[in-house]
């Protein structure tokens, strides 16, 4: 049974989510502040976290960073904040999706299911390490090594790299990348891809201006070549 951790300081929202999720056979834990959320996550190991940003003790972004210190559990932000800067900050900290309040329960459940699916491993142990002539990607350990040194990637950079590496040799469309890395609401934000692909190339390509591994297919998407 899938376990959901609901983190929100508004009792009516928590109550509505708990009732709806339990009716659909989810196991549910609830926290009303960031400290309790981090403690519950460590104790109960949820399969997905629904997180409000406006908490009474910690900012939601701090909670995301706290979780990302030890777990890749899918995190869906629920917030009344509409600023794109705040959304980007939450996503860059490691959130998987962002739903603006008020939201429809059916849409939230669909995004939850998608986030959980994306978190499931899709390669076997023998396929978990990808080696190129310049760097190595360890999908199981979530690490990248270049010339004997670990490369520091942001959560968003890692997520983008992971999607491309798991589809090595295949064209991944712009829409698919945006949806998998940033969520359905960002399917048209192609500028995100240009910025983050440029960052990956700077960190991993021998010659970022003439990429060997991160190939752009103009107007269509991107392809990773080992």
Automatic annotation (TrEMBL):
Report the residues modified as 4-aspartylphosphate.
52
Molecular function, one GO term: phosphorelay response regulator activity
Domain Response regulatory, residue spans? 3-116
State a single Pfam family of this protein: Trans_reg_C
Keywords from UniProt, A to Z, are:
Cytoplasm, DNA-binding, Phosphoprotein, Transcription, Transcription regulation, Two-component regulatory system
Which coarse location class applies to the principal site listed for this UniProt protein?
A: cytoplasm
DNA-binding region, as residue ranges, is located at 127-226
Gene3D superfamilies linked to this entry = 3.40.50.2300, 6.10.250.690, Winged helix-like DNA-binding domain superfamily/Winged helix DNA-binding domain
Q: Name one GO cellular component term.
A: cytosol
- What region holds the OmpR/PhoB-type domain? 127-226
Kindly list the places in or outside the cell where this protein is found, as annotated in its UniProt entry: Cytoplasm
Q: Which SUPFAM superfamilies match?
A: CheY-like (SSF52172)
PANTHER family to which the protein is assigned, alphabetical: KDP OPERON TRANSCRIPTIONAL REGULATORY PROTEIN KDPE, REGULATOR OF RPOS
Question: Briefly, what is this protein's role?
Answer: Member of the two-component regulatory system KdpD/KdpE involved in the regulation of the kdp operon. Upon phosphorylation by KdpD, functions as a transcription regulator by direct binding to promoter regions of target genes to positively regulate their expression.
* Protein name in the entry: Transcriptional regulatory protein KdpE
Organism of provenance? Kitasatospora gansuensis
């Amino acid at each position: 049974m899938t376990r959901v951790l609901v983190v929100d300081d508004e009792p009516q929202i928590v109550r509505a989510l708990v009732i709806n999720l339990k009716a659909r056979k989810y196991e549910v834990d609830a926290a009303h502040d960031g400290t309790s959320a981090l403690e519950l996550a460590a104790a109960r190991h949820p399969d997905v976290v629904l997180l409000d940003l406006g908490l009474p003790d910690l900012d939601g972004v701090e909670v995301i960073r706290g979780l990302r210190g030890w777990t890749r559990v899918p995190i869906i932000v629920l917030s009344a904040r509409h600023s794109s800067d705040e959304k980007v900050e939450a996503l860059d900290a490691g959130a998987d999706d962002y739903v603006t309040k008020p939201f429809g329960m059916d849409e939230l459940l669909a995004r939850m299911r998608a986030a959980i699916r994306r978190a499931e491993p899709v390669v076997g142990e023998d396929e978990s390490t990808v080696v190129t002539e310049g760097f190595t990607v360890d999908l199981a350990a979530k690490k990248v090594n270049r010339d004997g040194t670990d490369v520091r990637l942001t959560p968003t950079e890692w997520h983008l790299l992971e999607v491309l590496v798991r589809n090595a040799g295949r064209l991944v469309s712009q829409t698919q990348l945006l949806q998998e890395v940033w969520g359905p609401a960002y399917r048209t934000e192609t500028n995100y891809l240009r910025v983050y692909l440029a960052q990956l190339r700077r960190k991993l390509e021998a010659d970022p201006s003439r990429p060997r591994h991160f190939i752009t297919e103009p107007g269509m998407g991107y392809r990773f070549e080992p």
